[in-house]
Write a structure and sequence with these properties.
6-stranded mixed sheet; alpha/beta; 17 helices; 7% strand
Length: 414
């Protein structure tokens, strides 16, 4: 007859695993076998990352409010505050004791509907609710930036492509996937996508996603998404559907992977002339955009597509820009260059730190208050070459040109 373990033992096991311990250490900590520990974890069914046995392993990262002192009863109440690990522990105990959702809500100071949604969203396939596992699952859902679901799911991509070749709309495909894969477990969630995910894959051609020609299968035949609502050229609606800097992949933030760029305009006297500047975050390589006479959205898009299309695809992973109207045609740029564009928060130039520093260096040649339209494409090429030949301490005294040449010669390094 299998040995029965108390609720407290299982709760302690889940607290240890979700706190960062490996399955082996958590099993040893509560005195159960590895087979039993593995069975308990599979039955929880909410958190999907692979957990290794042994001294090392466990879930990556640390979940806020799982660390002692991160939250507690002295935390001031605020509107729509997220549930803490303590709240979820109270919910688990209340369910074990047979309390109603309303009674549990009064214990934690929340409405019964909050408790009902929490239990429905975070209970395991076997109907059990464990506070630590639920808190970890909620943390994983909130993690930003989120990985694009279609990147690592070629089977689902091929299925969507087949339906679209038959004239299905993204809305119909999303509904069919929901009908074929109901449920809230991790396997069902990975087998379905929303229509918005499909549209993003169509209009922002990222590698490992849907075929480039599928947008022509839509009834509208549009090559880019049409902005909705009023657009006064400067309002929030201009970039309402665009990616923000919080959507940018982590690899761009740590500069470990080349091909992520930052860009902006440097302005001449009276804002009547401009030069576009592009800086690669990993190598600090600079590209200057010649904008004679005009620096409107059309001119900037044409210059950027012309210059960046000369780069190989592995060096066109993303571009980060501010919210100026000069990039209003960002959808056309994304499609032409197969490169997503991320927009900074308003009035946050430090989010493009490499570009801001480069613009400061460029003012040596392009002084403020001068007419930048007098500079020819050859002038811009000469200045860019000088800056790209300048040794950088951040590159161990290599030059940006040398760093980029190494990546061009060895694409595998990128």
């Amino acid at each position: 007859m299998p040995k029965l373990f108390s609720y407290e033992t299982r709760a302690e096991f889940f607290e240890l695993v979700c706190g960062g311990a490996s399955l082996s250490r958590a099993a040893d900590g509560v005195g159960v076998s590895r087979e039993t520990a593995s069975s308990w974890w599979r039955s929880s069914g909410l958190v999907t990352p692979v957990i290794r046995f042994g001294a090392r392993g466990g879930l990556p990262g640390t979940v806020p409010s799982m660390v002692p002192g991160a939250s507690g009863p002295d935390e001031p109440a605020r509107a729509r505050r997220p549930l803490t690990s303590e709240d979820r522990s109270m919910i688990a105990v209340g369910l074990m004791c047979g309390c109603s959702y309303a009674q549990i809500g009064r214990l934690i100071g929340r409405d019964r509907s909050v408790v009902c949604r929490e239990v429905t969203r975070n209970r395991g396939p076997d109907g059990s609710y464990w506070g630590a596992v639920a808190h970890r699952a909620a943390h994983e859902r909130r993690r930003r930036p989120k990985a694009f679901k279609l990147h690592d799911n070629p089977g689902l991509c091929r299925r969507i492509e087949t339906w679209m070749d038959d004239g299905w709309s993204p809305e119909l495909i999303a509904a069919a996937l929901r009908a074929d894969h109901p449920g809230s477990d991790g396997q069902a969630r990975m087998a379905r996508v929303s229509h918005e995910t499909i549209y993003r894959a169509l209009y922002v051609q990222t590698r490992g996603s849907l075929r480039k020609d599928l947008a022509a299968q839509l009834l509208t035949k549009r090559r880019a998404r049409k902005p909705q609502g009023h657009n006064d050229g400067r309002g929030k609606s201009l970039y309402r559907e665009a990616f923000t800097i919080r959507d940018r992949p982590e690899e761009a933030a740590d500069r470990g992977v080349p091909g992520h760029w930052e860009g902006d305009l440097i302005m001449g006297a009276g804002n009547q002339s401009a030069i576009g500047t592009l800086v690669e975050r990993s190598t600090r390589f600079v590209i200057l955009l010649h904008l004679p006479g005009r620096h409107d959205a059309t001119s900037v898009a044409e210059a950027m597509i012309r210059e960046m299309s000369q780069l190989p695809i592995h060096l066109r992973r993303s571009l980060t820009w501010d919210r100026g109207v000069e990039l209003a045609l960002y959808r056309d740029i994304e499609v032409a260059l197969e490169m997503p564009i991320f927009f900074c928060d308003p009035h946050a130039p430090w989010q493009r730190g490499s570009n801001e520093n480069t613009n400061r260096l460029l003012r040596f040649w392009f002084e403020k208050g001068t007419d930048l339209a007098t500079h020819t494409p050859d002038d811009l090429a000469r200045v860019a070459a000088k800056l790209n030949a300048r040794p950088r301490p951040t590159l161990d005294m290599q030059t940006p040109a040398q760093a980029l040449a190494r990546l061009l010669a060895n694409p595998a390094a990128a």
